[in-house]
Specification:
By secondary structure, the protein is mostly helical. The protein has helices at about 45-70, 75-115, 150-155, 175-180, 190-195, 240-255, 260-275, and strands spanning about 120-125, 135-140, 200, 225-230. It has 7 helices and 4 strands; from the N terminus they run H-H-E-E-H-H-H-E-E-H-H. Helix 1 packs antiparallel against helix 7.
Length: about 280
């Protein structure tokens, strides 16, 4: 989260293949790198968690490909039809989910208004398909002065692509509950209906995070619209490392099909209700 009162960005396209800072090494995760002195090795349960996340993601991809035979090299005409079907699913399901969630959204808005000062809806610039910027909507989960603490926390985050601070003091008590069960994401259904996002896809990046993003083939994650849920969300959520999260996004792009989207959508409610991998 960057600024509490972000203005709507002008319609522009950001470069996604030439970041200013050195690229992350996403080919080999920290747990896979040899270390002669043993220093810095991850704890055993973290190594097993990373293996389990990877296994679940690959099992899902394999099951979909065996069922459909679909792959990234499908004929262009077939892919064009599938993209049209994906958009139709977004409109139909997005409208239905928005209508069904209105009572919950009204309650969340009331709780935010009663428990902290500031706006109910948080607006933030994000990078979408082909590097295009758009305004993403969320329920506010942080204090109104969160932006003033951002620079200090960014230093603690180091050179990571995604800003994730466990136990972030800027998050309100209600905000922690909303994040745990992803209730803060409901307003993004508006982004889906507007065409900024899809129900399924990689999470949209902040423009500032784009400078840290790896080069080359990893930029292919921007070939598809960003989504509310995705492969990495059903494979580990916040416990995924940056490298694993980027790998999951790329595997989603390279193996995308309507059937994969449907499988991810079916798995998402259980992941959210059980708060798997949520901070």
């Amino acid at each position: 989260m960057r600024t509490a009162n972000a203005k709507h960005p002008s319609k522009r396209t950001l470069p996604v293949a030439a970041p200013a800072t050195p690229a992350l090494d996403v080919g080999v995760s920290d747990s896979e790198r040899p270390n002669n002195d043993g220093a810095g090795l991850p704890r055993t349960h973290e190594r097993y968690a990373a293996i389990d996340q990877r296994y679940r993601a690959m099992r899902l991809l394999t099951a979909v490909e065996q069922l459909t035979g679909a792959g990234v090299l499908a004929p262009a005409r077939q892919r064009s039809v599938e993209w049209g079907l994906k958009r139709a699913i977004d409109i139909v399901m997005g409208t239905g989910l928005l209508v069904l969630s209105l009572p919950v959204m009204a309650l969340v808005a009331l709780l935010i208004r009663c428990t902290s000062r500031g706006s109910v809806i948080f607006r933030q610039s994000r990078v979408g398909r082909d590097g295009r910027e758009f305004v993403m909507y969320k329920f506010r989960t942080m204090r109104p002065d969160a932006e003033f603490h951002e620079e200090r926390l960014a230093k603690l985050n180091g050179n990571r692509v995604f800003l994730k601070i466990e136990g972030d003091s800027r998050v309100t008590p209600l905000g922690r509950l909303l994040r745990k069960y992803s209730l803060d994401e409901f307003p993004q259904l508006i982004n889906v209906l507007r065409g900024d996002m899809s129900l399924v896809g990689p999470r949209p990046l902040l423009p500032s995070d784009l400078r840290k993003f790896p080069r080359g083939r990893w930029a292919r994650r921007f070939n598809v619209p960003p989504g509310i849920t995705g492969l990495w969300q059903v494979s580990g959520r916040s416990v995924c490392s940056d490298e694993e999260r980027i790998r999951f996004d790329l595997e989603y792009v390279e193996h995308w099909s309507i059937w994969l989207d449907l499988r991810i959508l079916l798995q998402t409610p259980a992941v959210v209700l059980l708060a798997k991998g949520a901070h």
